[in-house]
Write a structure and sequence with these properties.
The protein is built from 11 helices and 8 strands. By secondary structure, the chain is of the alpha/beta class. It has an 8-stranded parallel beta barrel with strand order 1-2-3-4-5-6-7-8, surrounded by 6 helices. α5 crosses α6, α6 packs parallel to α8 and α10 crosses α11. It binds pyridoxine-5'-phosphate.
Length: 244
């Protein structure tokens, strides 16, 4: 199997910085270390309420970090304008509710098909790779295809939160979703809630080409350091894929 791409989400370096309102720890410093740690891209979510990553952070990532930048954002006019101005390598469109603690479910592509088709078109025209963050539901994947997005990111949160039989069932849904992506010609990514253990069966799905992982890695970084934490994830992914 091919080496899997690892996007490291640095949102929670910004969460820690913002707890004191100063400039430390700097999420851009983490972004600079991703390559050395074996990561392939920097991922950051500019939320409507700017609770962690700020406008200045995304400007600096785009300007100062020599890695592909995957900007996660809601399908709003404000975010579209920011993306068209800073031109990240990729945009992952996510649903957003102000009161949620994190992104709790996938986009309702079926319910917003016309809006999303119009929303992604200028991004695609600007050469930005667009993915839609969706639950592994066949109807959502088929709608993502119709919208014209070349990629989807399967929401792994329900799988990660489940235990026992329910987790097995969620893993089967992810596996079927990944297979359907391939059949529809969609590039398949996955992310949310992944850690060193639960990532293994997801990384073993051959259709998945990219994972985006944040909270767990930043948490581990507190104990072992950022580079060792990300490097361990890289080792696990390479082990699962049989890459030396
Ligand atoms: N992918 C998407 C689309 C997300 O919104 C998030 C969380 O911002 C992640 C991946 C990373 O999730 P986690 O921080 O739980 O690893």
């Amino acid at each position: 199997m091919r080496r899997i791409r690892l996007g490291v989400n640095i949102d929670h370096v910004a969460t820690l910085r913002n707890a004191r309102g100063g400039s430390h720890p700097d999420p851009i410093r983490a972004a600079w270390l991703i390559r050395e740690a074996g990561g392939d891209q920097v991922t950051a979510h500019l939320r409507e309420d700017r609770r962690h990553i700020t406008d200045s952070d995304v400007e600096r990532i785009a300007r100062e970090v020599d890695l592909p930048f995957n900007l996660e954002m809601a399908a709003t006019a404000e975010m579209q304008a920011i993306a068209l101005r800073i031109r990240p390598h990729a945009c992952c469109i996510v649903p957003e509710r102000r009161e949620e603690r994190t992104t709790e479910s996938g986009l309702d592509v079926v319910g917003q098909e016309a809006h999303l088709r119009a929303f992604v078109k200028p991004l695609l025209d600007a050469g930005i790779r667009v993915s839609l963050f969706v639950d592994p539901e066949p109807a959502q994947l088929e709608a993502a295809r119709r919208v014209g997005a070349p990629c989807v990111e399967l929401h792994t949160g329900t799988y990660c939160n489940a235990t026992g039989e329910a987790r097995e069932r969620e893993l089967r849904r992810l596996a079927e979703g990944a297979r359907l992506c391939a059949a529809l010609g969609l590039e398949c990514h996955a992310g949310h809630g992944l850690d060193y253990d639960n990532v293994r069966p997801v990384a073993a799905l051959p259709e998945v080409v990219e994972l985006n992982i944040g909270h767990f890695l930043i948490g581990e970084a507190i104990f072992v350091g950022f580079v060792p934490a990300v490097r361990r994830m890289r080792e696990i992914l390479d082990e699962v894929r049989g890459v030396s």
